[in-house]
Amino acid sequence: MNATPTPATSLPNFDPAKMLSFDLETTSADPFEARIVTSAMVTITAKGAEPIELLADPGVEIPEGATAIHGITTEHARANGQPHDEVLTKTITALREAWNNGLSVVVYNAPFDLTVLRTHDPSFTVDGLVYDPFNVDRFKEPYRKGKRTLTDLSAHYGVQLGNAHEATSDALAAARIAWKQLKIWPELGTMSGEELMELQAVKFYEKAISYRNYLIGQGRDASTVGTSWPVQSQGE
């Protein structure tokens, strides 16, 4: 489990008034194959929300299935996007700066987005607090029926989503869900950063192992079910 960030310094508590909410739209649903199409980073402080969205030319054809989700075609990305590696570098730099400034990084389904970054830059490390609204929802309300997509959770928590699968809208929705979760479960904001990271990693691991065992019991392939949070390792 990737529960412990790199620095030895202690992590601040999660404060929804001091966060950077981050979201990627990509070429694939496989984080080990996906290339970045858009990267959105919304800094939220007492000053308000400051969004930045970067469009990348992923350097490969964007599959029709991916375009159907986020609306960006290969032609549009090639004509208007920055080189993929520049967007990757700018994104990682922004996350590191956020952590250095004491902000938490909010990522909905963190093991996807953060694994994409690690796949393209193996030097990328988690250097601060990560808060994953999707993971938190699963272990805080494990028996609630229904899907847990960002659209579903936005409706459940009563927050505005905007244009689903548009990176900035998704990042803002994740931030709003995180804020609502802290209202419902204030203990998440009183835990130390290390405690909160460990809790999320342990709960993710337990859920993944349970799902693996279910698949094995059904005679199905369980090899693609990752157990590490907030970054996955290929072949783990």
TrEMBL record:
Q: Which Gene3D superfamilies match?
A: Ribonuclease H-like superfamily/Ribonuclease H
InterPro entries with a match to the protein in the record: Ribonucl_H, RNaseH-like_sf, RNaseH_sf
| Signal peptide start-end | none
Report the residue ranges that make up the Exonuclease domain in this protein.
Answer: 18-187
Cite the GO molecular-function annotations of the record: exonuclease activity; nucleic acid binding
Q: What is the designated name of this protein?
A: DNA polymerase III subunit epsilon
Q: Look up and give the organism this protein is from.
A: Corynebacterium deserti GIMN1.010
